[in-house]
Automatic annotation (TrEMBL):
Protein name per UniProt: Choline/Carnitine o-acyltransferase superfamily
Family per record: Belongs to the carnitine/choline acetyltransferase family.
Domain Choline/carnitine acyltransferase: 4-513
Keywords: Acyltransferase, Transferase
Amino acid sequence: MRGPIPSLDNTFRSLLADLLPYRTRWQAWRSRLALGLLKLANVPVQKKLLRLQAEGPCDWFAESIQRTYLECRESLAFFNAYQVHLYTDEQKTLFERAAQVLASVQKMVITDDTFARSCRTYRVAEPECDNLVEPPAAGYGVLLVNGQMLVLPHTLPASADKLQQWSLISKQRATYDTATLSLGEASALARQDWYELLHAARACHEFSEALNVLRSADFILCLDMDQALSLSNRFFDKAIQIVVDPVSTYLIFEHAAVDGQHAISMGEALAANCDQAPHTWIEFLSPTDNSNMHLWTTRVVHPSAAQLDKAHQYLEQVSSEFVRKRHWFPELDAQFFASITQQVNGAVSVDNIIQLAMALAFFRTNGRVPSVYEPVSLAHLPPRRLDFISPLSTAAVDVIQSLDKGDPVQVREQLLAAIASHRARIRQSKKGEGALAHLLALASAEFPDNKQRCVRIQRRRRRLMSRLSHSIGFLAHRDMMVSNGGTSPYLESFSTIVHQPDMLGVGYLIGARGLALDLQLHGACKEAIEPGLFIHHFTQSLQDLVQVLLPGVNQGTAAYQPAAATHTASAVHHPLLTKGGATAHARMPLAQQETSL
């Protein structure tokens, strides 16, 4: 079923409400003028959208959200990929876990159609806006190890011993030619640079053959021998990459192809399959002679000297500007949040408290109120996938600015109003009436047969609207993306994306033994926000909000001691870089929580 198309009046009324927290009095008329002009320009487009939606099979809301991610011109590895970490059995060796994961993946690409189609999908670099391609089933997967790739037919069972043997052989054959790039490095470049390399190298037989093997594969399994991981063990155009390293197992998702809710479902399914003894599946596979298994090198991209230098500089720059940090709050478990919601008679959800605490932490760290975006799942309105809302209302901004000095009774009233507004925005979005999704759908429907022109015009309009109204420009800047990874006994953490430079991305997951935050910072945001300080302020902000919500409650039971309740893992595995250190892994049973994901 398709969701409704909201009226222009409702959409622009919602947009004006989103702008209210970020504008001063003298900016009000400029914001109204800018939105009025935009609404007037979209009157004929709304009629066109209604007609297209009625005539064709395409849902322009789904199309526009996907296009938003396909427009990403920066590195997919840093700006458009996110991770779901599975729980790791520390009793098993690297190769035992890899064999278990491989057997589970081989089973799922045959028995789980959604997982299989997502694993096959790959992204093709194009000018302005990329495309997604879903090839037919090929009957094989690819193992990436030590900069080499090994084709694995689905009928080939691989034991831990066999994987270790292949790893040793690949290490012996591995070469590092400084005049070449691996397909992993090339696919991690800015999209225009990768597009140019693709077209320049298409006449090279070695390049085309290796690229087609990776693109056509039913899945990609990356086996990392250590945490200082190599780009040669990745191919970022693929919608899903499964990674096994010495301390963890995780999946890397490309956001244009797979949204958060489906990623979590797939991660849970893979982890559940790994928990079921995979040897039962291997016994049903036909044995294959693997004595002549062929290893391919991934270093098949031969750029010019100028292109090579530019590629190395770009990868060095984006990696140096990227910081990722994971932090655990053992005391902030499902019971803690459940006790709060019970004491306010269910008028507050976990998302409300955590996201407002994050905005307050940003304010206390950076000295200003952030513009915040939160993804909302629309899986119940297929083929729509998700929408975005701005969770901060005027009441929320009032709480942020007056919490430290305002009247406690008044601040509590503002806090309850902020929570009610946040929940109302989620409900509106869940009904398919989100303002941002509607704007994106209008933009896509205006030029349905010309993606490139659509992208160019959208960018010009954003610049024009930002000049007309500072508050629109501020809201469009997107300081923070905050995503809830839900709860599951099979998952350890969930990250979000920072889809433009200078953003802070926060993914969080709540379990019976604690809250996990996964922070990603880029560019100027990295300079302005020190992760440790942000986490400290988040801890204090959460405690302050709880005290406002539950005045007079014994803090020994209703709150927590920040110093004793936190644990930080600074060495979290980014798709490209790992900066040393150890990450704590514990199997944590998680309870169900309300989530907007």
